[in-house]
Amino acid sequence: MQTPKTQSRPFSRPKKIVMLLTILMIAASCRKDTIHVLAAEATAPETHASPQILALYEPWFGDLKHIDVGYSSQDPAVLRGQIESARRAGISAFLVDWYGVRRGPFLDNSFRLLQKAAHQSHFKVALMYDEAEDDSVNSTDDALESLSRAYKDYIGPEAPYHDTYLTYKGRPVVVIFPKRGKTNWNLLRERVNSWSSPPVLFYKDEAPDAFAGAFDGYYAWVHPWPRVAARRSATPCRSIIVTMTIPRLCPSC
């Protein structure tokens, strides 16, 4: 999923938030007996410590269009177990891969159920919005519609479990995973600034110069190290294990 960068440019924009995401796709996409092994290897700090450890969560298991791993991302008992596994690993929140309602109804319903389970378990969740890449979809319209729906259903003060949504300094965290790069992120920023508490927006690696002002910070998308990659090929676990520290102000930015 990592896109090679063609050119590196100095990071000089002032006071951006750096999300050195230690992303651990655990408990979401692995065989159950693999979860605990990976959790033990995470060596994450306690959840009350700073920085926090987040885990990237893939909620598509159980969808007939996806690989069968023997459980469903929409089974409440599975969700509770995954949350507890993550908590034992020192993880305090899931970043949930999400395509909006129209492009990913199964994933959307999975997030709805996960947020309810997180509420019951005093855990946190947040959305990682995947940019539309199909030419038949207007990616800007999709982003505007999707985030508006997310605010209504999951993030805003009228959402049933809004207290479970991850925040940074009182602002909800929304992570963007870019694909085709055709979205007008400046327009999205303008729209979400109308929320009662405008979100902290993170972009993968660095945003194009034209949209740099739309984002509050960045995160790195990293391939797994060799030992984990070898294990990944030997088990049904389809995870990417990377390291992720969450948000702090970059003192030299």
In brief, what are we looking at here?
By secondary structure, this protein is of the alpha/beta class.
Please explain how this structure is put together:
This protein has 253 residues and is α/β, with parallel strands linked by helices. Helix content is 31%, strand content 15%. It has seven helices and nine strands. Strands 1, 2, 3, 4, 5, 6, 7, 8 and 9 form a nine-stranded mixed beta sheet that branches. It is globular and about 45 Å long.
Key features?
253 residues; alpha/beta; TIM Barrel; nine-stranded mixed sheet; 7 helices; 9 strands; disordered N terminus
| Quaternary form | single chain
Helix content: 25-40%
Q: Rounded to an integer, what's the Rg over CA atoms?
A: 17 Å
Structure annotation, total helices: 7
Summed over residues and divided by their number, the pLDDT gives a mean of 77
Largest sheet: 9 strands, mixed
Structural class from helices and strands? Answer: alpha/beta
Order of helices and strands: EHEHEHHEHEEHEEHE
* Poorly predicted runs of 5 or more residues: 1-15, 20-49, 232-253
The top-level CATH class is Alpha Beta
Tell me the number of structural domains.
1
Q: Estimate the global geometry from the Cα principal axes.
A: globular
The fraction of residues assigned to DSSP E strands is 15-25%
Terminus-to-terminus distance = 27 Å
Full CATH superfamily name:
Glycosidases
Q: What is the CATH-assigned architecture?
A: Alpha-Beta Barrel
> How many strands in all?
9
Could you please say which CATH topology applies here? Answer: TIM Barrel
